Amino acid sequence: METGPLTPLVDHLRAAHAERAPLVVGLGGPVAVGKSTLAAALADALAPRAVAVVGTDGFLLPNAVLIERGLFLRKGFPESYDAAALSAFIARVRSGAPVEVPVYSHTEYDVVDAPRPIGTPEVCIVEGVNALRFAADLDVALYLHAEEEHIVGWYADRFVAQCAAARDDETSFYRGWAELPEAEQRVLAAQFWDSINHPNLVDHIAPTAEAAHVVVVKGADHGIVRLEWRT
Question: Per-residue pLDDT for 1 more than 50?
Answer without folding.
Answer: no
